[in-house]
Every structure is written in C-alpha cells, then in structure tokens.
Amino acid sequence: MNKSQLIEDLAKKTSLPLKKAEEVFNSVFGDIEKALIRDERVEIRGFGSFKIKEYDGYKGRNPKTGQIIEVNPKKLPFFKVGKELKERVDIY
C-alpha cells in the first residue's frame, strides 16, 4: 500500500473529500517528521514508536575497488514495532 492508497482509504472511511484527507495525512506525518527532527521520540500505542538513532563514524571499504573510505557519523530514523501490532501480524 502506498501513500495515495492510504489517503484514498482515509477519505472513504471518514467521508472526507480527497483533498481534505490528504491534508490530514500530511499533517499527521509532518508532525511525526518535525518531532524526529527535534530528536523527540514518537509513540503510537498498539502500533510502534519512532526515534532517531545515532551511529558513529567508521572506516569502511568500497566493495568494488577495495579502497578504504571514511564513513561520517549519522543520525537515522528507527521504527520499533509495538507488541500489539507484532502479535496481530504474527498469526502463525
């Protein structure tokens, strides 16, 4: 499922016009993005949580040339699935 399908589904379930459903969708995910930029944790009960993980720099190797390269430290978003969602998905 992609973004446009999620927006269409939201519009159908809430009887909102497609444009308004898109605004709601963008607002929710925009707020999550802004919180992560401020290095805040976002938790959606029953679904999961988003946070920023920091990774140290290290010396890596270009697999094609074998040349050693310096990889800079970085911050990346990380999602941890919630217990309830994990249980709903793992039905086997």
Q: Which key features would you list for this structure?
A:
about 90 residues, alpha+beta, HU Protein, Chain A, 2 domains, three-stranded antiparallel sheet, two-stranded antiparallel ribbon, 3 helices, 5 strands, elongated
Q: How is this structure best described in words?
A:
There is one protein chain. This protein has 92 residues and is of the alpha+beta class. The chain folds into 2 domains: 1-40; 41-92, HU Protein, Chain A (Irregular). Helix content is 42%, strand content 29%. The chain has helices at 3-14, 18-37, 83-89, and strands spanning 42-44, 48-55, 58-61, 68-71, 74-81. The strands form 2 sheets. A 3-stranded antiparallel beta sheet has the order 1-2-5. Strands 3-4 form a two-stranded antiparallel ribbon. A hairpin with a 3-residue loop joins strand 1 (42-44) and strand 2 (48-55). It is elongated and about 55 Å long.
Q: In which range does the helix fraction lie?
A: 40-55%
> What's the multimeric state?
single chain
Low-confidence stretches: none
Determine the number of helices (DSSP H or I, runs of at least 4 residues): 3
The CATH architecture of the largest domain? Irregular
- Give the rounded overall mean pLDDT: 95
Main beta-sheet annotation? 3 strands, antiparallel
Query: What is the C-level CATH assignment of the largest domain?
Result: Few Secondary Structures
CATH topology of the largest domain: HU Protein, Chain A
Strand content: 25-35%
The H-and-E topology, N to C, reads as HHEEEEEH
Gyration radius, in Å: 19 Å
In CATH terms, the superfamily of the largest domain is IHF-like DNA-binding proteins
Structural class given helices, strands, pairing? alpha+beta
**Cα distance, first to last residue?**
22 Å
Number of domains: 2
